[in-house]
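JOB MANIFEST
job_type = single_chain_structure
chain_count = 1
residues = 197
[input]
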Amino acid sequence: ENPYPAVTMHKVQKPTEGCHLRLHQKPFPHLDEGTVQWIIDQATAKLQTAPPAVKAEKKCMVPSGPPIAAIMERNGNALANSARRLEVVRNCISYIFENKMLEAKKLFPAVLRAMKGRAARQCLTQELNLHVQQNRAVLDHQQFDFIIRMMNCCLQDCTAMDEHGIAAALLPLVTAFCRKLSPGITQFAYSCVQEHV
């Protein structure tokens, strides 16, 4: 093989055997205190006499940005997008509680993505709270699984700011939602989400 002539091949030689036993460290030279102080004084004097560095002002035209209407429209789109996400969260939760699992399964990935946003996390706690108030806290296994996955995703994306808001709002919910494992044995949601910080 002929490597390109431009490429330089560096050969790193292996250290000889027993080289670690030889002392080949040169002692650090002794610094003269007077010389060091003289160098420092010279540099300080130079800094004090030097004129302050001022950048030459360069005048230029700043191009005009997009019209204000376009900015408003962009924000409007963001708000509409946010509203759509909240609608997806609401729909998915209502499908879960109406036992329409196929529809809920279709929306589920979008809901988990929406949980990155604070508004969606708040929406989740509000919607689940409504269902608790309607005495719909005892779930079947599939419903329980969906709700737990949503709660876990919500808590996973929570920041320190959400600790006293969203995480606190979820606390009464995780002690309300449950499923019957067998006669006399009930599993509550907190048993599946208690690992979060």
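[summary]
The mean pLDDT is 79.
The helical segments are 33-49, 68-97, 101-114, 118-133, 141-156, 166-174, 190-193.
exit_status = 0
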